[in-house]
Amino acid sequence: MTKANPGPFHLERLGATMLVWLDVPGQRFNSLGASFPDDLERLCEHLDSLSGLHAAVFLSRKQDSFIVGADVGMLEQLNSAEEATALAAKAQRALGRLEGLRAVTVAAIHGPCLGGGLEFALACTSRVATKADVTRLGLPEVQLGLLPGSGGTQRLPRLIGLAQALDLMLTGRKLSAPKALKANLVDLTLAPEGLVQGALAHAASLVEGKALKRSKVPIALKGLGSQESDMLRIWTETQLAPVRALIARQALKGARRQTKGHYPAPEAIIACARFGLEAGLEAGLAREAEAFGELWATPESRALLWLFQAQNALKRDNGVSADLPSQPPLTRVGVLGAGLMGAGIAYVSAHQAGATVRLKDRDDASVLAGLRRVGALLGQATRKKRLSAHQAEVIRARIGGCASYAEMGPVDVVIEAVFEDLELKRRIVKEVEEADTRNAAIFASNTSSLPITEIAAASAHPERVVGMHYFSPVDKMPLLEVIATRETAPEVVARCVALGKAQGKTVIVVNDGVGFYTTRVLVPFMNEAVRILSEGVPIEVIDAALVDFGFPVGPIKLIDEVGVDVAYKVCKITHTAFGARMEPPSLIEAMLAAKRLGRKGGKGFYDYSGEKRSVDAEIYALLGVTMSKALPQSSDIAKRCVLGFVNECVRTLEEGILRSARDGDIGAVFGLGFPPFLGGPFHYVDLLGAAEIVSELEALETRFGARFKPAPLLRSMARDTLTFFGKNSIVNAPAAA
To answer: Helix H segments across 80-126?
Structure first.
């Protein structure tokens, strides 16, 4: 007999066991909203009132999903740290009620079990999970600048040990079911089709005392098999103060090395986990709730929550303003150019998007080299157990190579990834259209700076020409910048956006222009760093200043990574388009004259010949730079580079290159490494205030010249006290602003 309760729980009693199906109304995935704690407490009261009930098995009615975590929108509705603390405490009480049920409880997990979902499972007596690829368990709250606030910092260390628990909470890693079993996070793994019966059998074994309840059984020192050894390790890490202290110190040292003090959440996680083991569960939960509220109120968490919501919004964005009928997916992909970029595009197209790919280059040797590059990526994924050997072979079978258009056959889209040369790309457009007997293929240019309109000028069908700017290495970098010209058909943009999402990318759409968005705003950032070098500031000091600010790599090293020749070519293009503020420093020309091309050439600003990549000792004499005796402050170095970057970002929005400030933040963070804890350049302007940004730029303009002249939009925002986001945003302002 099936009984449906109000709220998200649906009950099905099978003798002494209750199947509890979770199905949050109106959602594709189960997420835990504001009413969930009350719903759960009512459920627990009901289950405890039933006579003869020995076990409850919790499952999800959602397809391929258990519980994805808390509703992030709910967190954005909070108004204070106190409200956030109260929310966490309420969730803790509900899960404590679940943990205290008289009946044995089993979380039967299929699909994502993340954040609050895993905290729910931790409050159960036991956990079983399917071995399906979609099943992942983790506590990723740290990625939002938060900590697990529903008991995760307390129950996880007690279950799997302090060291493993901190590793999971500090990295936000998501474990497959087999890895979760190895970590003692789940007690049994099952095939998806056997989940219900397997969970019922496991619950019966728990009731009869035949199955291990890891969190309840005391340590048995005799025998010391693998299971007992794990239990002894967990006991040692949780019960012995010196061991706890050592693990916490090591974790704290590693966290500070990674975050450079920019993210408070890791230190709070370590402190809460250790405190709870020392002071007891109740005190630990209270500390956890308080820390959750404090973290929620930090600017770092607000920025990270903003980025999370912006990413989710982009997942629902088709890239065009018009409502379009459903478009067929691009399942047959041609890639022109089998170098590192082309091979990477082929790999993500076949692996992530499941497309059939034809990789073309000028001759068989070049094609074979490209296929080897794809094979190397597949081999790497197999060694790291991201793919099985069989999966790798299936993906490999989707990719073919060819040296002629005739061998390529019919494709839905051709993505060219050849050298950054306008005439070459124009010639290729014509060749593709001549070979396209169906007269239907989309032509997408992977260029970092050349205007797509100028490439499309050679096309008989400019409405089918679009830009798809990937970032290197393609298999690792998350951003794709799709560039639309005035003539690109909306359905072409939408289909390329859909392909990018299928390839696993976060996709922004920008309008055409020199350098588009990402390349254009990077130029003043790198140029300013080289100018600071010309003033006698050591390279390592400049790079360290920007890394300390929050970038993953310094601007001088970035030039080496991009290639000095490539950087110079892009600078020349943007200089021609935008004038003096984009003029490349003369030191770049000196680097080219000395054939210092960067990492790919073995030497650039840094020396890459040895194992330790250090600044080349000869570089200053080569460039004629005399070291300054009075070095600027690290913050002043960072300010010059960052404010030029931010100012150019605002100009792209003002000129209509960007569709929105949201896209600008996503593009800068996920494509260029702008510090996530600052939320992106537009969020950063709101954080400091437009008036403060304008004041800083004007001071730099007085000292260094017109390249720091504030963008007109920034001036108007400062004048009218406007922001990019929120109630006072420029979107809500009068048109004159």
So the answer is: 81-99, 116-122
Domain 518-635 bears CATH identifier 1.10.10.10: no
Bridge partners, residue 689, by sequence: none
The answer on pLDDT for 224 being more than 70 is no
Give the tens place of pLDDT for each residue, 520-573: 999 999 999 999 999 999 999 999 999 999 999 999 999 999 999 999 999 999
- The secondary structure element, H or E, covering residue 405 is helix 405-408
CA distances from 36 to 79, 249, 396, 463 (A): 20, 36, 45, 50
The average confidence (pLDDT) of the chain is 94
Q: Could you give the CA distance from residue 695 to residue 252 in angstroms, rounded to a whole number?
A: 38
> In the prediction, which pLDDT does 731 show?
76
Tell me what percent of the residues of the chain surpass a pLDDT of 90: 89
**Distance from C-alpha of 326 to C-alpha of 41, rounded to nearest angstrom:** 43
Give me the amino acid identity at 567: A
* Residue ranges, CATH 1.10.1040.50, the chain: 518-635
pLDDT per residue as tens digits for the range 575-620: 999 999 999 999 999 999 999 999 989 999 999 987 778 998 899 9
Beta strand ranges found along 455-587 (DSSP E): 465-470, 479-484, 506-511
Whole-angstrom distance between the N-terminal and C-terminal Cα of the chain? Answer: 64
Give this prediction's pTM: 0.92
Catalytic residue check, 481 = yes
Contact 293, 84 (CB under 8 A): yes
Domain 2-297 sits in which CATH superfamily?
2-enoyl-CoA Hydratase; Chain A, domain 1 (3.90.226.10)
Q: Give me the DSSP letters along 706-735.
A: GGGPPPHHHHHHHHHT-BSSSTTBTTTS-T
pLDDT of 721: 96
Q: How many CB atoms lie within 10 A of CB 385?
A: 10
pLDDT value for 586:
92
Q: 590 with 623: CB under 8 angstroms? A: yes
Q: Give the HSE-up count for residue 392: Cα atoms under 13 Å, Cβ half-sphere.
A: 16
Catalytic residue among 237, 267, 481, 491: 481
Residue 23: name the closest of 66, 73, 83 by CA: 66
> In the 8-state DSSP scheme, what is residue 67?
B
Residue 168 φ/ψ, nearest 5 degrees: -65, -45
**HEC-encoded secondary structure of 632-647:** CCHHHHHHHHHHHHHH
**Within the chain, which residue ranges are assigned CATH 3.90.226.10?**
2-297
Q: Tell me the CATH class for 332-511.
A: alpha beta
User: 681-688 and 299-315 are packed helices; what angle lies between their axes, rounded to 10 degrees?
Assistant: 140
- Three-class SS of residue 436? coil
| CA distance linking residue 548 with residue 557, whole number of Å | 14
Q: Convert the pLDDT of each residue in 643-666 to its tens digit.
A: 999 999 999 999 999 999 999 999
Q: How far is CA 188 from CA 97, 128, 179, 736, in A?
A: 24, 5, 11, 63
- DSSP 8-class letter at 580: G
Which among 139, 437, 117, 357 is positioned nearest to 266, based on CA atoms? Answer: 139
Q: Where are the beta strands (DSSP E) in 259-407?
A: 332-336, 356-360, 399-402
**CA atoms lying within 13 Å on the CB side of residue 131:** 10
What pLDDT sits at residue 734?
57
Note if the bond before 112 is cis, omega within 30 degrees: no
